Amino acid sequence: MADLSVNMCGIDSPNPFWLASAPPTNTGDQIARAFDAGWGGAVWKTLGEPIENVYSRYSSIDVNGQKIVGLNNIELITDRSLEMNLIEIEEVKRRYPDHAVVVSLMVESNADAWDEIIKQVEQAGADGIELNFGCPHGMSERGMGAAVGQVPDYTCDITGWAKASATVPVLVKLTPNITDIRMAARAAKNGGADGVSLINTINSITGVDLDNFVPRPVVGDKSSHGGYCGPAVKPIALNMVASIAADPFTEGLPISGIGGIATWQDVAEYILLGSTTIQVCTAVMHYGYRIVEDMAEGLSNYLDSKGMASVNELRGLSVAKVTDWQDLDINYVVKADIDQDKCIHCGLCYVACQDGAHQAIGAERSEDDKTNVWIIEDACVGCNLCSLVCPVQGCITMEEREFGQTHMTWNEYTSDASPGDLYPRPKHGVTIGGD
Amino acid sequence: MSTKLGFAPLPTMTADEALSEAHRCLMCWDAPCTRACPTSIDVPGFIKRIAHDDLVGSARTILDANILGASCARVCPTEVLCAGACVLNELHERPIDIGRLQAFATDDVVFGDLGLFRSVESTGRSVGIVGAGPAGLACGAELARMGHDVVMYDANEKPGGLNTYGVANYKMDQQTAIREVSFVESLGVEIRSGTAVGADVSLDDLFKNHDAVFLGVGLGAVPALGLDGEDLNGVEDALEFIAALRSASVDLTGQHVAVIGGGNTAIDSVTQAALLGADRVYLVYRRGRDEMKAYPHDIERALTNGVDFIHWSAPKRIEGDGSVSALVCDRTEYGSDGKLQTTEGSEYAIPVSMVLRATGQEKRRSFLEQIDGVAVDASGRVTVDDQFRTGNDRIWAGGDCVNGGKEVVNAVAHGKAAAIDIDRVLQSSPRGK
Ligand SMILES: Cc1cc2nc3c(=O)[nH]c(=O)nc-3n(C[C@H](O)[C@H](O)[C@H](O)COP(=O)(O)OP(=O)(O)OC[C@H]3O[C@@H](n4cnc5c(N)ncnc54)[C@H](O)[C@@H]3O)c2cc1C
Ligand SMILES: Cc1cc2nc3c(=O)[nH]c(=O)nc-3n(C[C@H](O)[C@H](O)[C@H](O)COP(=O)(O)O)c2cc1C
Asked: In chain B, positions 49-88, which contact chain A (CB-CB < 8 Å)?
């Protein structure tokens, strides 16, 4: 059984599983139940000057019957009084001294306001502070949240104020609604941040009510853009986490990875790309706290299978495996291979390749009237599409092919001293009308 | 007589059920389900429209291919057609429930007042259709949608053919069959029920009044077996037994029922008898299980309803005093010449109170032979070409009377194909025949 405990920029946590600052961390009672269920830490729902929310706040994207592939919300920060929250923070810390309680904060942009609230939450026992520079709706219009996170200088300055007041570690939560996340991370680091959390939600409109033409979520006769999260955002978040982990300027800056996490595999991927802890919101809003059970079990079994005694051994192992395109081996060759015994004759690979890729699959009705498919090896560019659409596990695999080609990057190939030949790529369309 | 029907067709799907089922469809290329459908319904196409909340588009996709999509959804042996061809079977998963999805998609259009098809301007040409069963209805609907005047004649009191009088209640009730006929009427088809061509309307008048004629007369009754005792009370044509159940249920409690035959009519009869409370139900068949024409899924259903299958038995006579008391059979076997023969001295009696004949419907040879140019083959089926033309250039035929008795969906395919050819001929021939 691998050791799952971690230390996130000075904050000890029994495991890397934290709840993100959001409805699942709204109250002390909820956080206590989450800790009982197995969560190692929680980032308290963002505190500040309490707000009022609108009725109707969430909307979602379902894909082919899968509910909430993406979730959108127009909720603001906490609507509960600071006093009540402080009492509950104290109580949670008293009952769960070994769990990580980080408190998310957002106040107006002046140093005194930050100083005052930081003192109060530290007094209540917070193990760390997370600066919410990410909320993309409602708060940004008031000069807070993403309005800060989108301007590196503001991020740096306010982080500096917080660091000047805080004695506990300070995390900066980044907004993904920017062009290059590394600039925001660098600014946080320049301001003295002990770590970064990312991502907050992405600006979104999930759809429109086709009866009354109001986008969702419908608030009377209007809607507003919201913040997008859930499984759909994971690839975007992973890329941002990886690019911060790989950026020489922020190398080693602890990362709490967030976005679309629901399973132990998601957790492992975030950790492999450089995260120390991870945070979850949507998956808990969908299924409740118990999802942490198989996250913990699965991650632990996985670490055991890799012979790793601690989750810390996993961290960052994939960071160096993300490289620029120019540094890929352009002589690495794979071809699709169909296991005919597993094929169910649905023809999906054929039509995908025919219409959507490189016309490298043949199809024909067999004598017993089934759709038979085969790879046209010479035309196959190894793009993976057929293996992605195939509904049968392990039926279409991509097989590496050795033709004696030399390892060669684009940069090497285009240099004066090119080390070898480019393994030929099938070119399409040249035979139209005969040649 | 009890009012309990004892069984009812499966309820139609809820929207949630339909949605989750629709999402299971892989949307195969050159889809095997479509290929397996005699009317070539674009199955993935209509299913995706359900998934995308376009029920009108879904219904149109189905009904354009098969105007009786609502009854086919219920009575088709999907297990051996579309659903049987579903690739999910090969994944050892439950195939898509295509039949019930099709009912979900079509019901609002066919049984509701969602007018999907607009009437077109009349061509002024008239087609007479003999028989308002599935073949005739499909032909008539198609022609009406092309603007031809269509008059359908049916000898029965109610239109619909075997959809109305023959299919098992647990697949589709009579009301549903008749409502679907009304839908066809709403497309502009006139139906004259209780009007037998050859008796109530002469063949001469038929050809005088119409530019073209389609024969969809189906098959006839199950002929007598020629056994001693066949006139006893309690001996009946299985089709009459089934037809009676279409409008009123009976209570068979206490009855011991023997059904003779091994095809679809026999299997439906035993299952219905069992569902209606008969104490004992026997299916008596000359040969083995593998040689039965009935479908495996129907045999399965009969078995789970407690029907006893008596194989290798040939009825010899029926005994009783006024009413049936026993069906006497000989055992059968294949002789050294490969022919089925009865085994000497093997006679035995099955004590029963009802005997139903389900040994195959008779062809309408005598009616058909009166029509100039219409030829029937040795087994009594109307001879047609690929366009369903008979030897008379104004007469087309399709359905059971052509294929000798298959499914509703085959009859629909015939009727539609014939309609397309009739239209082509009418469009290219001068008016006023
Ligand atoms: C008991 C039974 C159960 C069946 N169950 C199923 C099932 O579950 N699923 C399935 O797909 N198929 C089933 N079938 C088969 C299916 O019913 C037929 O294949 C289909 O009905 C054939 O259609 P049709 O229009 O050719 O003939 P029919 O449905 O037989 O219609 C012929 C019509 O022509 C009329 N007619 C005949 N002569 C004249 C005349 N001279 N003048 C006027 N009208 C005339 C008759 O009254 C009748 O209404 C079943 C058949 C039987 C017998
Ligand atoms: C309804 C809702 C409210 C949220 N409120 C906050 C908040 O108050 N402060 C904050 O930092 N992030 C907030 N978030 C963002 C989440 O903490 C998290 O960054 C985001 O949802 C991505 O994670 P996920 O994909 O696991 O949901 C909120 C998200 C949702 C869905």
From this structure: 51, 87-88
